[in-house]
Specification:
This protein has 423 residues and is an alpha+beta fold. It is built from 17 helices and 14 strands. A hairpin with a 5-residue loop joins strand 12 and strand 13. It starts with a helix and ends with a strand.
Length: 423
C-alpha cells in the first residue's frame, strides 16, 4: 500500500505541473495510468487525502472539476464526499499546497509571481485587486484590442501586430478577462483579475501587474463573479444598458415609420467608454465628451422629417442677424411638444440631462483647467451615467405609448428581475 500511495502522489504531482493548465488527475482514469485495479486505487487515495498529501475536486461546487477553481474544502468534507461512489465518479485529485511547497523549485518561476502562486496550489479563481492604472498601457496602445471592464474586460494583441516581427514576442499577449472590485469601506473601484489569466502573462507583464497590486480589502463585482463561475447574468451594467436603449429607441423609430432617432448604435463601444481608470479632470472630461457624442450629438436630424425648424435666427453684437443651427436635443424637445400633448412633460428631465452632459463637455474646452486628481470624479461619473440611463428610459417610455411600437420586442435584460446594476 505504501508503494502505491507514493506512485499516486508522484503521478498527481507530475500531471499537475506538466499539464500546462495545472489540471487535476481524473480518479476514474488513474487505475489505467498506474496499471492497477480500481479496488486498489480507492483506499490508497483515501489514505493520501487523510494525510493531507492530496486534495480532491468533485465538480459539484464549480462545474469544471479538471481545474482547481476554488479553495479546498475541509478535509472532513472531502473524505465524506470521497466515501460516496456517486461523487467519486467525477473526482479529480490534486497535490496539496503543503506537498507543493516542499517540491516546487521557486527558481523556475523568477519574474512570474502569479504563475508561481498557481504552481504552489492557489485556486485559479483567486481574484486579486489592482490599481486601475494597470490597464492604461493597454487602453492607450493601439496595438491592443482593449475592452473596458464594464463587467468583463479583455485585452488581446491586434492581428496585424501579432504577425509583425517589430512587436516583441512577450508583448503579444492575451488577457481573457478582468473585471471590477470595490473597497469594502469607501466603494472605490479597483481592477479585479483572476490568477488563471494573470499566470499566463509573459514575465514582463506579470511584473507590471505585480507593481500595481493592492493589498486592501476588496469585494469582487457580483456580475463578474457569476460570469466566472459559468452562470447566466441576472442583470447588466448601466453602461451596457445605455447603447442597448439607443438601439431600442431606433427600433421604435422604425416602427412608427421614421428614420432612426440616433445615427450610431454603438454595437462596439470605444475603449474610453468605461469606468474611470484614473479619477482625473482630463479623463472625466474625455468621458463626458464621449457620452455627449453618444447622446445629444448623436440625434439624427432626419428623424424629425422637417416637422421642426432646424435653424433659428441669432442677432450678434454688431447687429448682424445670422442663421444658427439648433442644438439637437432642442429639436427633440420641440418635436415631442408637438406630438405628445397633455399636462405632463415627461421629457423635461431627459433634455436637461443632455444639457448637463453638454456643459460638462464644454467647460474644459473653454477654460484652462489643471488636470487634477480627485476621487470625487468617480462619484460624478456614476451620477451622469445614471442620469443618462434615466433620460433614455424616459424617452423609451414616451415612444412606447405609440400603438405601432407594441410589436417591438425589448432587450432580454429588461425582462430580468433586477435588470440594471448601477456599477
Amino acid at each position: 500500500m505504501a508503494r502505491l500511495t507514493d506512485r499516486i502522489r508522484e503521478l498527481v504531482l507530475e500531471n499537475y505541473l506538466t499539464s500546462g493548465d495545472y489540471n487535476g488527475t481524473s480518479l476514474s482514469q488513474m487505475p489505467q495510468q498506474l496499471g492497477v485495479s480500481p479496488a486498489a486505487v480507492i483506499p490508497a487515495v483515501r489514505q493520501l487525502l487523510s494525510s493531507g498529501s492530496v486534495t480532491a475536486v468533485f465538480g459539484d461546487v464549480h462545474p469544471n472539476g479538471a481545474i482547481k477553481a476554488l479553495q479546498d474544502e475541509p478535509k472532513r468534507v472531502l473524505l465524506r464526499k470521497f466515501a460516496s461512489s456517486q461523487k467519486r465518479r467525477y473526482a479529480f485529485i490534486y497535490p496539496s499546497a503543503a506537498l507543493l511547497r516542499r517540491r516546487i523549485d521557486r527558481s523556475q518561476y523568477q519574474s512570474r509571481p502569479f504563475t508561481l502562486r498557481l504552481a504552489l496550489g492557489a485556486p485559479q479563481l483567486t481574484h486579486l485587486a489592482f490599481d486601475p492604472a494597470v490597464l492604461e498601457i493597454y487602453r492607450n496602445d493601439p496595438r491592443y484590442l482593449y475592452r473596458a471592464p464594464i463587467v468583463v474586460g479583455s485585452v488581446s494583441i491586434h492581428d496585424d501586430y501579432y504577425r509583425s516581427r517589430k512587436v516583441r514576442r512577450d508583448d503579444k499577449i492575451l488577457i481573457k478577462s478582468f473585471g471590477l472590485c470595490f473597497d469594502a469601506k469607501t466603494r472605490e473601484p479597483a481592477v479585479a483579475a483572476f490568477l488563471y489569466d494573470l499566470a499566463r502573462l509573459p514575465a514582463r507583464h506579470q511584473r507590471w501587474w505585480e507593481m500595481q497590486l493592492s493589498h486592501r480589502q476588496f469585494h469582487i463585482h457580483p456580475a463578474y463573479w457569476r460570469w466566472a463561475n459559468g452562470h447566466f447574468p441576472n442583470s447588466i451594467s448601466v453602461l451596457h444598458a445605455i447603447p442597448s436603449l439607443i438601439q431600442l429607441l431606433n427600433r421604435y423609430s422604425t416602427a412608427i415609420g421614421r428614420p432612426p432617432l440616433f445615427r450610431d448604435e454603438f454595437d462596439e463601444t470605444p475603449p474610453e467608454y468605461g469606468w474611470l481608470l484614473r479619477p482625473t479632470q482630463r479623463e472625466f472630461s474625455d468621458f463626458a465628451q464621449l457620452l455627449d457624442k453618444m447622446l445629444g450629438e448623436n440625434i439624427n436630424v432626419r428623424f424629425f422629417q422637417g416637422e421642426v425648424a432646424t435653424e433659428e435666427l441669432e442677432k450678434r453684437r454688431n447687429g448682424t442677424v445670422v442663421a444658427k443651427r439648433k442644438w439637437k436635443p432642442r429639436l427633440l424637445e420641440e418635436w415631442l411638444s408637438k406630438h405628445y400633448t397633455g399636462r405632463d412633460v415627461p421629457w423635461t428631465e431627459a433634455i436637461e440631462t443632455f444639457r448637463k452632459i453638454r456643459e460638462l463637455r464644454n467647460t474644459p474646452a473653454h477654460a484652462s483647467q489643471p488636470n487634477v486628481y480627485d476621487t470625487r470624479f468617480i462619484g460624478q461619473q456614476r451620477g451622469i451615467v445614471a442620469a443618462a440611463f434615466r433620460a433614455l428610459s424616459d424617452l423609451r417610455d414616451i415612444l412606447a405609448t405609440h400603438p405601432d411600437t407594441r410589436g417591438v420586442k425589448p432587450p432580454r435584460w429588461m425582462e430580468l428581475r433586477h435588470p440594471v446594476l448601477p456599477q
